[in-house]
Amino acid sequence: MVDPTSDLGEDVTAEDAPRCETCGEPIVHVPTHRVVTWIEDDAVRTAHFCDDDCRAEWDG
Asked: Is-above-0.85 flag for pTM?
């Protein structure tokens, strides 16, 4: 597990990094990383994206 108190992106590998909802690539050391968060069925859901272009293509 990534230390939640560490610097953003520190100690993240491709194996434990989130994947882009649009292209499926692992998001490792990507400065343009975007996250959308919402509530669904009483649970918090998130979707991660490489950049604004992938975010714009997502139809979720």
From this structure: no
